[in-house]
């Protein structure tokens, strides 16, 4: 694919709760370009790095060399190596499914940034493949480890009368990150995790591509933010209070992944997580269909 390249390397880990396990990790990230400009992104913070750069050559790749005395290797070597047991996938949403499938077919466990795919049906196929291979497929969900979410979980034990959640953000390239319901799927995950499965009643989309304007949750100049209003029988919540700084949420998510590798999650817990993720993908697809059907 023109304008696409990848860096690959191995790194070692990890010790969890006094239990030490030695694994070889293979981390993937990508470059994407538009009009001969490349924004190099270790997409997401889970990798601990996000670098934006420019280059005149859309096919250029930053050589990583050695990291912590571990040498960069090729994709082919990572897929075939017996030392590589786990893959971290941190690419654009549009390309993740193919990467997941490659590593699962090579008998590797996979941690992938949300969302794993832009298709509900494809996500089902990927989980089926992981189960057939006996491998862990973990989709990162750091939004569920935030202090704001922990606060809301304490509040929503009450009877909800009505509520709204307004989300704002700058625009993202739909080619890479999907329709806004997909690129903002973490907010659907919040709602489903707090209130259970949801039904779509209506959805609207106003879009002016020439102005980079999209009225759903995204438009230029808007900072990433949440504006909520929840009214329960006994209390109303109009704004999110200052509940503290999120600490080590990406490390916490990786710890959850390792606990799965060590068999410390029950089948019931894994099934509930999978059900939530698939339901959110289904909702995102339904929102997209509804918006486009109204055009």
TrEMBL record:
One of its GO terms (molecular function) is zinc ion binding. InterPro entries: Biliverdin_Rdtase_cat (IPR015249), Gfo/Idh/MocA-like_OxRdtase_N (IPR000683), Gfo/Idh/MocA_Oxidoreductases (IPR051450), NAD(P)-bd_dom_sf (IPR036291). GO terms for biological process: heme catabolic process. It comes from the Eukaryota. Residues 151-218 form the Biliverdin reductase catalytic domain. Residues 74-141 form the Gfo/Idh/MocA-like oxidoreductase N-terminal domain. Gene3D superfamilies: Dihydrodipicolinate Reductase, domain 2, NAD(P)-binding Rossmann-like Domain. This is (raccoon dog) hypothetical protein. It comes from Nyctereutes procyonoides.
